[in-house]
Design brief:
The chain has 163 residues and is α/β, with parallel strands linked by helices. It has one domain: Purple Acid Phosphatase, chain A, domain 2, CATH 3.60.21. Helix content is 19%, strand content 33%. It has four helices and ten strands, in the order βαβαβαββαβββββ. Helix 1 links the parallel strand 1 and strand 2.
Amino acid sequence: MKLGILSDTHIYDRARHLPRAILDTFVKEDVDIILHAGDLTSLEILDELKEISEVKAVQGNMDYFYGTRLPEKEILKINNFKILLFHGYGIYPRGDKAKLVYKALENGCNVIITGHTHMPLVTELRGVKIINPGSPTTPRYAKPTFAIAEIEEDIRVKILEIP
Protein backbone atom coordinates (compact mmCIF):
# COMPACT_ATOMS: atom_id res chain seq x y z
CA MET A 1 0.00 0.00 0.00
CA LYS A 2 1.26 3.48 -0.88
CA LEU A 3 0.69 6.53 1.28
CA GLY A 4 1.05 10.16 0.31
CA ILE A 5 2.02 12.14 3.41
CA LEU A 6 1.72 15.89 4.01
CA SER A 7 1.70 18.33 6.89
CA ASP A 8 1.76 22.04 7.55
CA THR A 9 0.48 23.18 4.17
CA HIS A 10 -1.01 26.39 5.65
CA ILE A 11 -3.08 27.08 2.54
CA TYR A 12 -4.22 30.66 2.36
CA ASP A 13 -2.68 31.80 5.63
CA ARG A 14 0.92 31.36 4.39
CA ALA A 15 0.64 29.91 0.88
CA ARG A 16 -1.79 30.45 -1.98
CA HIS A 17 -1.97 26.85 -3.17
CA LEU A 18 -0.56 23.37 -2.81
CA PRO A 19 2.50 22.91 -5.05
CA ARG A 20 1.54 21.10 -8.26
CA ALA A 21 4.53 18.75 -7.86
CA ILE A 22 2.83 17.12 -4.86
CA LEU A 23 -0.41 16.42 -6.71
CA ASP A 24 1.47 15.15 -9.76
CA THR A 25 3.63 12.86 -7.61
CA PHE A 26 0.64 11.42 -5.76
CA VAL A 27 -1.02 10.64 -9.11
CA LYS A 28 2.17 9.21 -10.64
CA GLU A 29 2.85 7.06 -7.55
CA ASP A 30 -0.81 5.95 -7.52
CA VAL A 31 -1.12 6.46 -3.76
CA ASP A 32 -3.84 4.47 -2.03
CA ILE A 33 -4.44 7.06 0.69
CA ILE A 34 -3.25 10.57 1.51
CA LEU A 35 -2.52 11.44 5.13
CA HIS A 36 -2.33 15.09 6.23
CA ALA A 37 -0.87 15.68 9.69
CA GLY A 38 -2.54 19.02 10.30
CA ASP A 39 -2.27 22.76 9.78
CA LEU A 40 -4.21 22.69 6.55
CA THR A 41 -5.87 26.00 7.60
CA SER A 42 -8.40 25.57 4.76
CA LEU A 43 -10.61 22.55 4.13
CA GLU A 44 -10.51 23.30 0.39
CA ILE A 45 -7.22 21.42 0.17
CA LEU A 46 -9.08 18.22 1.14
CA ASP A 47 -11.34 18.54 -1.91
CA GLU A 48 -8.29 18.86 -4.13
CA LEU A 49 -6.61 15.83 -2.55
CA LYS A 50 -9.81 13.72 -2.64
CA GLU A 51 -9.74 13.96 -6.43
CA ILE A 52 -6.61 11.78 -6.24
CA SER A 53 -7.33 9.34 -3.41
CA GLU A 54 -8.96 8.76 -0.04
CA VAL A 55 -7.79 11.36 2.50
CA LYS A 56 -7.41 11.34 6.28
CA ALA A 57 -6.48 14.58 8.03
CA VAL A 58 -6.12 15.77 11.61
CA GLN A 59 -6.35 19.07 13.42
CA GLY A 60 -3.26 21.24 13.71
CA ASN A 61 -2.83 24.12 16.12
CA MET A 62 -3.35 26.72 13.38
CA ASP A 63 -6.48 24.97 12.06
CA TYR A 64 -8.28 25.94 15.24
CA PHE A 65 -7.61 29.65 14.63
CA TYR A 66 -8.96 29.42 11.07
CA GLY A 67 -12.12 27.55 12.07
CA THR A 68 -11.01 24.30 10.45
CA ARG A 69 -12.38 21.45 12.58
CA LEU A 70 -10.88 17.98 12.23
CA PRO A 71 -10.21 15.08 14.61
CA GLU A 72 -7.22 15.49 16.96
CA LYS A 73 -5.91 12.08 15.86
CA GLU A 74 -6.63 9.20 13.51
CA ILE A 75 -5.49 5.62 13.97
CA LEU A 76 -5.09 3.41 10.90
CA LYS A 77 -4.24 -0.29 10.68
CA ILE A 78 -2.29 -1.24 7.56
CA ASN A 79 -0.79 -4.72 7.38
CA ASN A 80 1.30 -5.18 10.56
CA PHE A 81 1.39 -1.47 11.28
CA LYS A 82 -0.85 0.57 13.52
CA ILE A 83 -0.36 4.21 12.54
CA LEU A 84 -1.12 7.26 14.65
CA LEU A 85 -1.75 10.40 12.59
CA PHE A 86 -1.25 13.31 15.01
CA HIS A 87 -0.13 16.90 14.39
CA GLY A 88 2.28 17.15 17.29
CA TYR A 89 0.92 20.28 18.92
CA GLY A 90 1.30 20.00 22.69
CA ILE A 91 4.58 18.08 22.46
CA TYR A 92 7.28 20.17 24.13
CA PRO A 93 9.99 20.70 23.29
CA ARG A 94 8.50 20.83 19.80
CA GLY A 95 9.10 17.55 17.97
CA ASP A 96 10.60 15.76 21.01
CA LYS A 97 11.13 12.22 19.74
CA ALA A 98 10.74 10.48 23.11
CA LYS A 99 7.40 12.20 23.71
CA LEU A 100 6.20 11.35 20.20
CA VAL A 101 7.10 7.70 20.84
CA TYR A 102 5.21 7.82 24.13
CA LYS A 103 2.16 9.28 22.33
CA ALA A 104 2.30 6.46 19.76
CA LEU A 105 2.68 3.76 22.41
CA GLU A 106 -0.14 5.10 24.59
CA ASN A 107 -2.36 4.76 21.50
CA GLY A 108 -1.09 1.23 20.80
CA CYS A 109 0.72 2.31 17.62
CA ASN A 110 4.10 1.39 16.16
CA VAL A 111 4.18 4.28 13.66
CA ILE A 112 3.48 7.97 14.25
CA ILE A 113 3.00 10.44 11.41
CA THR A 114 3.36 13.95 12.75
CA GLY A 115 4.04 17.53 11.72
CA HIS A 116 4.20 20.86 13.55
CA THR A 117 7.99 21.33 13.30
CA HIS A 118 7.98 22.03 9.53
CA MET A 119 11.17 19.91 9.37
CA PRO A 120 11.32 16.47 7.71
CA LEU A 121 12.28 13.48 9.80
CA VAL A 122 12.25 9.71 9.42
CA THR A 123 13.67 7.75 12.33
CA GLU A 124 12.90 4.88 14.65
CA LEU A 125 13.04 4.90 18.43
CA ARG A 126 12.02 2.11 20.82
CA GLY A 127 10.36 0.19 18.00
CA VAL A 128 8.28 3.16 16.84
CA LYS A 129 8.80 4.66 13.39
CA ILE A 130 8.49 8.46 13.47
CA ILE A 131 7.61 10.16 10.19
CA ASN A 132 7.42 13.91 9.72
CA PRO A 133 7.06 14.96 6.06
CA GLY A 134 8.14 18.54 6.77
CA SER A 135 6.24 21.36 5.11
CA PRO A 136 5.79 21.85 1.36
CA THR A 137 5.01 25.55 1.72
CA THR A 138 6.64 26.94 4.88
CA PRO A 139 9.66 24.82 5.81
CA ARG A 140 11.96 25.61 8.72
CA TYR A 141 15.70 25.14 8.18
CA ALA A 142 14.95 22.78 5.29
CA LYS A 143 13.69 22.72 1.73
CA PRO A 144 9.96 22.31 1.01
CA THR A 145 9.13 18.61 1.41
CA PHE A 146 6.46 15.92 1.54
CA ALA A 147 6.67 12.13 1.72
CA ILE A 148 5.67 8.85 0.12
CA ALA A 149 5.57 5.69 2.21
CA GLU A 150 5.23 2.14 0.95
CA ILE A 151 3.91 -0.46 3.36
CA GLU A 152 4.25 -4.17 2.80
CA GLU A 153 6.06 -6.37 5.33
CA ASP A 154 8.06 -3.29 6.29
CA ILE A 155 7.59 0.44 5.83
CA ARG A 156 9.80 2.42 3.46
CA VAL A 157 9.62 6.20 3.49
CA LYS A 158 10.96 8.70 0.96
CA ILE A 159 11.13 12.38 1.82
CA LEU A 160 10.75 14.27 -1.46
CA GLU A 161 11.90 17.83 -2.07
CA ILE A 162 9.78 20.14 -4.14
CA PRO A 163 11.79 21.57 -7.03
